[in-house]
Structure formats: structure tokens, C-alpha cells
Amino acid sequence: MNRRDSLKALGLIAAGSGVLASSCKPESKQNGVDANENAATDTDKLPGVQEFEHERNKQLHAETFFTKHEMATITVLADIIIPEDESSASASQAEVPAFIEFIVKDMPSNKTPMRGGLKWMDIQCQKSYGNVFIKCKKEQQIDLVDKIAYPDKATPEMQQGVAFFSLMRNLTSSGFYTSELGVKAIGYQGNKPGVWNGVPAEVLKEHGFDTESFFG
Amino acid sequence: MSNYQIKENPEVYDAIVVGSGAGGGMAGYILANAGLKVLMLEAGPFFDPAKDALQLRWPWESPRRGASTTRPFGDFDAAFGGWQLDGEPYSKAAGTEFEWFRARMLGGRTNHWGRISLRMGPDDFKPTDGVTEEWPISYDEVKPFYDRVDRMIGVYGSVEGIRNEPDGIFMKPPKPRLNELYISKGAKKAGVPVIPGRGAVLTESSSEIKGRGTCFYCGQCGRSCKVYADFSSSSCLVIPAMKTGNLKVIDNAMVREILTNDEGLAIGVSYVNTTDLSEYSVKGKTVILGASACESARLMLNSKSKAHPAGAGNSSGLVGKYLHDSTGASLSGFLPQLLDRKRYNEDGAGSVHIYSPWWGDNAKLKFPRGYHIEYGGGLHMPSYGFLNWVPNVNGSVPGKDGQAQQRGGYGSALKEDYRRFYGANVGMAGRGTALARKDNYCEIDPNSVDKFGIPVLRFHYKWASEEVEQAKHMQETFQSIMHEMGAVITSTIPGADTSYGLEAPGKIIHEGGTTRMGNDPKTSVLNKWGQAHDCKNLYVVDAGPFVQQGDKNLTWTILALSMRTAEYILSEKNKLNS
What we know:
The complex is a heterodimer. Chain A is mainly alpha-helical. Helices cover 58% and strands 0% of the residues of chain A. Chain A is built from ten helices and no strands. The longest helix of chain A is centred in the first third of the chain and has 22 residues, at 3-24. In chain B, strands 8-3-2-12-21-20 form a six-stranded mixed sheet, with helices on one face. A six-stranded antiparallel sheet of chain B has the order 7-14-15-16-13-19, with helices on one face. A four-stranded mixed sheet of chain B has the order 1-11-10-9, with no helix packed on it. Chain B is globular.
């Protein structure tokens, strides 16, 4: 079978994959706060997924971990980390809060650091600004985030916040840049059948490599 | 268990093959094509990459975005299993370590492996270092089988003429990615050779290979290939062998014991159906074990009888001994030259594009043998955690505006850093020769059984100074390559306190040596054909027969030796018939 035959064989498969992909697409929502209510529907079992994995996914989707208040806080924080700007949509537009709800149930070691970290932030805000994080003014929220977003300049009493923010930032970037919007935003061009003929000539030239020899 | 009974199959097969990975698959393929009636027993479910591969799925099609919660190499990886299986434990003697990876599925671990297909060389079969032991066979005896495996399965690579890195019959290798060009340049400056990779992926069509597609460069061999463009035992050996009508596969069949008669010959095996727990026995004239080095050893040790009081094939007492994995250590960094790089599809092939064969002069080193280096990085498909390194290192270079910046951050500036650093990462990993030692071994744990009531393995494995010295050398080499290519190292450089990042034995998933071959029945389990010295119709075709592996990944040698063993079985049968 040559490459054309491969692609033909794959064409049939790709059509099936498209159907499944669209049925997995989360419904659009204003924000991720009530994501749990829809989450159970995006659990179609793909071929090649083992029964126990599918059951586990369904079970995790059916559980709720974060409270409404926590989800609202996660949503505000996620959008501070990945805001909407000229380069892309925001974290909540890409359903990142729902992803975070799922992933802490999937990796339970994140449950306490997340729950405790959110509470830590509310306590800090209560002390400094007299309100929980989501009820603070935007400048107050940013003021706190500035104290915990830069590990090397954070003060010792902010260290727990730094650890929490680092976890929150990683979960947010994971959730966003693996979503359909995020994959586009990062500029990933692959995952499609093609032919690899090496680095494009203009890129080789830009980096000072020879376009003819195998090792540039 | 009031109605406990063993269902006996009255049919006598010419051969029973236990396991469907590289070794079992090749033996089954050769024997079925020669007209023998073959029964293959696989502990896991049937798996056909054409239907079951998660190839071309997008990260958002996994609720955990490809994270490794239930599969060690991520949600889309093809391996059903991992280092821990529910209800199938193993133990470790105090103060020792071993991690045992098992894939329970048709094709076993060949569905997800890296397809890195290296031949062992003349010095791997007949070492000259004065420390490691020699095989009863030479490279020249195995070469014709490597050649046939190359033609039958297909491998890309380049003819280099390196003495202990023998060339094969190669298809064209994929060209390097951009980071790989930088690596090659840096490595050469550091005195480390880099050559095109060698992988079991069809980069060309071949008149000798039927029913398989050609690579379309999605870079996802680890998910197994829907058009069979890479080698999996399921797609390339077992499923084609079934089409001869001579090979029958029973899946979800966990073999309990090898059954032997009073003369000590194998007469069949007993197994449990893992889905309904019913018990079966089947008869065969020849029993071939390809269950994986440790699983085959476990099966032999659990098959005790009057004729084989220490387990089938174990009169030497060496079954389970000489267990050895590869050494492994790694280092990561990024290339400032690749910040803000132009985007294009750089998925490439799913096996290695480049690697460094061992180059060192052991006279100057504190360890025998050596290691090769595999390289990574680039504009790969996003998956869980793939940008976590960015906020840790974005302070190590000036911002886009040329100003110094703090690491970490949030908002539009952080988003810009994610985009800027994506694809600039580089990684390197060494894979080296760990010494086969008698005192590194697995045995039956006297105290515990798995969920099927089968006694489990207990491992005793410790690294020694040779392996630690090798890891130290790897780290020094990696740092020198990183330096020469102008990379910033992002991982913590491991020191003596962590044995220089040397992975625990078993983590590289190259275990072998547990049923080693040799000419002397006192110092080996099998003869040079893979046949048990004390049970003439019992053979082992996985990595158990390896006397001492080189730094070359095992699979190509398993395939060549299994083919050789299967043809020996055929020739012995012909002798009996003539």
C-alpha cells in the first residue's frame, strides 16, 4: 500500500473521528460556573478506551467537588491568568473551569492544595480588603495576584500563595492550550496526514542551516 | 467453588504460544505460515490498531487532556496496562527496587513502543570488555535473521559502517526537525556523533510488505497506527498469521502452568479466562513462551512437577536470575534560538529522527560497555502539562522588549511567553547497558498470589557502581551538548545523591535475561536455539534468553531470535518426520 492508499483508508476513519469529535464539543456557556451540569454528557466512549477507564470517567463527571463559590473564584483567577486579548479567547471561554473541576477529581492529590489555596486567597483578601476574592475590586485582585505570581520576588509570608498560584497557573494553561481554542492560539499545525520533507527551506535559512545537507 | 471444573480442549495443537508481543507474534507467524496448527494465548483483550488506536485524536477528546492518570504514557497511548495492574501485584525484597511494566493486550508492548530498531553488534554478542558475558551465538549467526526482519517488517535508517552498530536494509530516514539540527550541531562540537534514527516505520512502500500503509507523519506511533505503517505485533504478525487459518488466538487467557508428563516433556498449558474466571487446559506438542522475560520466568517457576521440582526448565536454578533492564537518565532544556519560532507541521515520524550511537573509549572510563542517546523536543501536539516549564524559566532570558523579566507571571504577558517558548524545548535521554548479574533476579514470592490465585513475583534488583558511573557520564555528556548548542538547562541537574538521575530498574521497560541461553546446562536455562535444556519441547522467545543486552533496544533482536527459534522448531519437526 502506498501513501495515497494509506490516506484513502484513513479518510474513512477520519470521517468517523469527526462525528465523535463534534459530539464531544462542550456547549457554549457564558462562563464555567455551572459546567458540572453539562459535564456528564461529554463522556462518549471512544473505540480503544477500556471499559474501566470509561466507567471511571463517567463516575468522575457525575461527582461534584468544588462549591459554586469555589468555581466562581476559579473562573475569575483562570481569566486573570489567561484573559481575552487580541491573541486569543479567555480561559473561561475555553471551558477551563470545567476542566479544572474534572482534573482535581482525576488527580485527587490536587484537591486539598486547590481547596485550601482558594480559601487562603479569600482570607488574605478579607484581611487586606475586607472582602472575599471575587467580591474585591479588580485592582485589589491584581494586587494580591502580583504578590504570588512571581516566585523570586514574593515575600516569605506569601509562599503558600505562590505554591497555590503555580498549581492554578499550570492547570489553567493545561486546560486552555489543550482546548480547541487554545491549540489554535499556540499555533500547533499538525495532527493531520501529510508528508514530512524536513524543516521548510525558509526556516532553515532563517536559522543559518544549509538547505541541501541532511544535517543542515 | 462447588462446580469447579477444568474444561479440557481435546485438540492437540502443533504449538501453543503464550503471549502475542514481538517474540510470541513472530513465532506464531512463522509456524502458522509453515502450516503448523498454532494456538496463541493472550492474557489481555484482542487489539487491532486499525480499530482501536487513538491516533489523530485531539487533546480535548480526552477529559484529562492526555494526562497519565490511567495510562502511564497518557490517555492516548496504546498500552493497556502499566507498572501497576489492578489485582496483579508483585513485590520487592527490602532495599531493592524494580518496576515491572506489563501491557495486557494483543501485541503487548509493541503497540506503544518507540519503534527504535537497533541491531546488537558483534561486540554485544561476543563482548571484549572482560566483564560482561558472551552469548553462545555470534552476530554473524544472527545477521541473516536481522536482514529478514528488516525486509519483512521494514525499518528506516542510514548506512554508516560503524562496527558495533551494524547497518540493516534500510528505508529512507525522516529528516531532522529544527531542534534536532541544533542538537546535531551541538553534539558534534561536544565530540558526540549523531546519525539518522533507525525506526520500524514504513517511510516507503515495499513489494515485500503487503497489507500495510505508508507513514503519513502524524508522529503518533505510541498510539499504534491505524494503517499499520509502524510495527506492532498485533497488526504485522498476529492478525496476518490468523489469516492463514492456522493460528487461533484466545484472548483474556492468563496462563497458569505449563503441564508436563512423567518424562518431563511439556504436554500443554492450563489457563484461566480472566473475564469469567473459568479454568481450561489445552494440549500442544510444543510450548513456546513469549509472555515477556519476567512473566515467562514466573510461569516456568510456577510449573512444578515430579519431573521438574524447581519449575519447568529450571534444573539449573537460574530461571529468574540475571534480570537486567537498560540504564536510563535524562536532562531537559530549551534553545533561546528557537524562541518565537515560525509555526509549521513538524510532527514527523513517531520513532526517533536522530540518535547518538555509543562513541566512548572504555579504557578511559569507569564502566564497561556504553549507552546511546535519544533526543526530543519541538512543536508537538499540546497535551496536559506541556507548558508547565515555561513559567519556571521565562525569567532566564530577556523579554521580547529586551528587558529583564521575572519568572512566573500571568495575563497577556504570560500568554505571550507560552507562545514564545512553545517548541523551543530540547530533551535528551541515555539508554545504556546494565550488567546482567546473577544476584539481580525475580523469584516466586512465597507469601502472595494475584487475583487469579497465581503466585506472584518478588524482585531483587540493585544498581551497582557500573550503572551509576554510566549515569554520571550521561549527565556530563548532556551538559556538554547543551552548552555547545547554547541551550539553557531547565531541569535540576541530578547529582550523586540521586545516582545522577539513574532511573529505577524496570523503568526503561527493557527487561531481559531471566531464562538465559548458553551451551552449559548448569549455567544457562536454554540452549542457543532458545530451547530448554531439560524440557526439549519448551522454548522461550521473548527477552528472557538474552545473555547480556547491549545498549540497543531489545525488540529487533527479540524478533530475529524468535524467527530463528521458530525455524529451528520446524527443522526439528522435519527431522522427526523424515
